[in-house]
Design a protein that fits this description.
The chain is of the alpha/beta class. It has helices at residues 10-22, 33-42, 59-69, 84-93, 104-115; strands at residues 2-6, 26-30, 47-51, 74-79, 96-99. Strand 1, helix 1 (10-22) and strand 2 (26-30) form a beta-alpha-beta unit. Helix 2 packs parallel to helix 3.
Length: 120
């Protein structure tokens, strides 16, 4: 399973990617929507984990752009400070909309569900 993780909180992105890698998931992580688009143009991903609130290209706009590049890629939104309006928008756009802090085992189960692939 290959995942693209996009979050402007660098410490969060690094730590989550390490935790996923330890569980056998191939992860690329970037800190901006612009970098995510570049990575998606160069690589194929089963799923993307996108922060909703980021400077520049936010998660919902990024999801729409990624879907144009890779319509089969599944999207999971994460947020640390989402409003009810953000939840409604995000839920309509992605398979899941999760609040930080994430429970790693729950995230693994969701990734397996949306991709149809198992993790060791």
């Amino acid at each position: 399973m290959k995942i693209l993780l996009v979050d402007d909180e660098k410490k969060f992105a690094m730590m989550l990617s390490k935790r996923l890698i330890l569980r056998g998931i191939d992860v690329d992580y970037v800190y901006t929507g612009e970098d995510a688009l570049s990575m998606a143009a160069q690589h194929s991903y089963d799923a993307a984990i996108l922060d909703v609130k980021m400077p520049g290209i936010g998660g919902i706009e990024l999801k729409r752009k990624l879907s144009g590049l890779a319509p089969e890629m599944k999207i999971i939104f994460v947020t640390g400070h989402g409003s009810e309006n953000d939840f409604e928008k995000g839920s309509a756009e992605a398979a899941y909309y999760l609040a930080k802090p994430l429970q790693i085992e729950s995230l693994i189960e969701i990734l397996q569900e949306v991709t149809g692939k198992s993790v060791r």
